[in-house]
TrEMBL record:
The chain crosses the membrane at residues 27-46, 58-78, 90-111, 117-133, 154-175, 181-200, 236-256, 268-286, 293-311. It is a multi-pass membrane protein. This is MFS transporter. Pfam families: MFS_3 (PF05977). It comes from Kribbella yunnanensis. It is found in: Cell inner membrane. Keywords: Cell membrane, Membrane, Transmembrane, Transmembrane helix, Transport. Its main location: membrane. The keyword rRNA processing does not apply.
Amino acid sequence: MAASFRTRLARLRVDLTPWRSSRDFRILMVSGSVFFLGSMFGYVALPYQLYSLTHSNFAVGAMGLVNIVPLVVFGLYGGALADHVDRRKMLIFTGIAQVAVCAVLLSNALLSNPQVWIIYVCGALNAIAASLQRPSRDALFPRVVKHSELPAAVALNALTMQAGQLVGPALGGVLVGTAGISWAFGIELAGLSIATLMYLRLKPYRVGEHSQPPSLRVIGQGIAYAARRKDLLGTYVVDMVGMFMAMPIVLFPAFATEVLKEPKLLGALYSAEAVGALIATLTSGWSRRVHHHGRAVVMAAACWGAAIGIAGLAPNIWFALVFLAFAGAADMVSGLFRSVIWNQTIPDEMRGRLAGIEMLSYMLGPLGGQARSGLVADLTSVRTSIVSGGILCVAGVAATGAALRDFWRYDARTDEHAVRERDLRAAAEADEA
């Protein structure tokens, strides 16, 4: 009986095979941890600074509106670029740009009268740099591990974000409340610099000889491919609907200060979802036995919305933290299976362009959701905004699953695209051996 229990626990444990087998995967994972840890300090500091200067929830949420156009334009262009140039160089050059933008934010925070317009301009510039960088990183990711290791690699890669999201906001909230906003931006600057230096250690990853320079036609080919693939379309729509309806992060300063009366625990609100996501990741061994990934995405996204709505009803901050942790776990499961579908079915020659579309799907939803939740909160109340968002998320995700039947029926064992990529990777790995 004891042996059986230990076997069940072993099946839940996260698979470390990609970490052991791939040097470049280790570099990407460690640099990602440093990057996200540093950026989470700024993630707390920037909205807090905007709220302190303007005392408006909508002004904080408007940062999402400022970022939308750069994300759309440069996300699509960055995806096409990732299919044409050395993806390692893209990581390095865009990392340098992010370091420069963070330095300007730090300089502005050190002024006696920080300027709101500088914060918005830096937000837009950072969105441009991130939009150019993220497709190259995501497109590089499937090339550094074996095809069979991708589910485990996706789970391990999620740890890079979760480690930063778990520690960064909590420490950032304390640091902002004690030492000041400029210290948070200073730590973000250090993290971005270290991560960019680590990218130098990656080996070059050049694209195939038949790659095409970025153009509207090339970008259009990627969009048309994504639209034809209903399984891919489902991953984008579910995430955008869920995040647009139920993203509550912009309300955390007001939720902690005015509703829950616990301003010193603001950082804990930011970290709660990461705690749940981390627990879900560390027990993700079960995911390799799931093959109907579309169903898993729909059900997990609906659970995310339900947990967010319940958190909005919290009578105290501890109740809110528990359900935000549940939401984080559900979101991680949804993200895990979305990533597995992307990485196991998209051909390498399309990977950059599709990575750009993927980035838009999981960034535009939250950015639009920030503006929506901030506006609803100002028109009604913070609680109403959070609870109504959770309800709308569950309804929207359920409707998407019902409308996109191919996504709901997706099976990794028999899907033609998954089978094709599995065979191609197996042949390539056999040639290398």
